[in-house]
Amino acid sequence: MNKMDYLDSIYSDFFCDSIVNMKTNYSNESKEDKSSLLSKIDALYITDESKQLLKKIIDYMNKYKCNDTDIYIPIRLIINSNSDKTIKDVIDILSLCSKNFSYTKNNDYLDYSLYKMSKDIDFTKYGIVNINKLSGINLEDDKTHKLLMHNIELSNDKESIIVISGNNDEITNFFLGYDDIKNNSFNFSIDGISPSIQDIYNSIINKINISDAMKVELLDYITKTYTEEIDFNNYQNELIKYISFNNELPIIKTNKSIDEVFSELDELVGLDKVKKVLRELVDLISLKDKTKDKLNISNVNLHMVFLGNPGTGKTTIARIVASILYNLGYIKENKLVEVSSKDLVAEYVGQTASKTASVIDKSLNGVLFIDEAYTLAVDNSNSYNAEAIATLIQAMENYRDKLVVIFAGYTKEMQAFLDSNSGIVSRIGYTLEFDDYTTDELIKIFKNMATKSGFIVEESAIEYLKTIIDENRNVKNFGNARFVRNIYEKTIIKHASRVKSNKQKKILITITKDDISIDNLIMK
Hints:
CATH architecture of the largest domain: 3-Layer(aba) Sandwich
CATH superfamily of the largest domain: P-loop containing nucleotide triphosphate hydrolases
Largest sheet: 5 strands, parallel
Oligomer: single chain
Shape: elongated
Number of helices: 21
């Protein structure tokens, strides 16, 4: 008889109310405090069956403490929930009760994230272990996964509580190939549920003071944006924070047609080769979607490399790529996470993998953009970089349907980096080259910025700007569009100072040669 069957045989009436009538003083608390515990369980966003199971487990801890049973059941529990708070609340209740009933051999608690794995961990030293961030196992090799499962098995007969927590997909993937351990050890399962739209709405309006009109808008916003797949607690907290600071609701992101996305792309000056590659990519993805299984087309590898000098539009295009893939349904979130090597590489041994994995976790279902990626090149002076690259390579392989990685940087340095790293090159599907802007294109960029702000630019100012660009475009680290943007911003400041005593509208909105400013621009 397994642990669940044994527990059910004791509670043949499914659940008796003995938890409210415990013989043992619950930390010298009153009956009302015990009822409070029941209320906490009833308030959890878990199924009714899970609530009854949790009460049974706690009641059994009490029976064991009172010597009503001499059979010790090591609690091996799966908590299946999209909400980190629900998981924490369940574990807090178990931890409190195990402490009060001395159910585990000690009160030591281990929060064990698989993004920060220690391969020589001994679970038997702890009273309660919560194994979480399960997707981190995908960044490890099979040997490490097997060792982890072995350590779990070693703790099976110990006086402890072992919890595996995460959402359904994470749990399924974690136990893939280890069904025997799951079925033989983890007989208890707590299943989370999501609150209703009305629950979310009521919770928010009870925590912030908003007008009746905004309450109507709030309900409409939640109806359109809330789904059961997301962590409802994070959703609720972020929404409360936004409303509190802005006194308005966020703008609802709506799907755009591919034509609308490409209209944004076409508004960008230059980048003809990049635009061509992106259109071809969209055509391929669209063909695959339309034909389904009728054509033997392999899954599209969308990991990319962007090669180009500063200010050539790499970051802007990365945002548009995220928008394109989101609106094609290839990624679930219109999200671009921008990082550099310092966001991936840690200062001390053993910390880089978890730091990189944390960035990957934030980027899942979106696009991870790594700028100046060549600084991850491995040599004797920065051995930690190898750990970051190995973690990235593993994620690129394991999360191909959840993550697109873009490496970006100067053409020459990136080429050297790629030539030295076959692991990354073999996982890159597209390489986009960003040419320097011509002088005419840079002038057009300047004019576009001025026009959008309502300014008129005199021809003499344009001619002077051309001279400045031509004199500086061959210097090292010339900023292309970034260089022009800096000039534009300084020009507006200089113009404002020049016309501050003037009231004529035409003069106020006209940029002249005298306004063009290159003060303090770094040009070497």
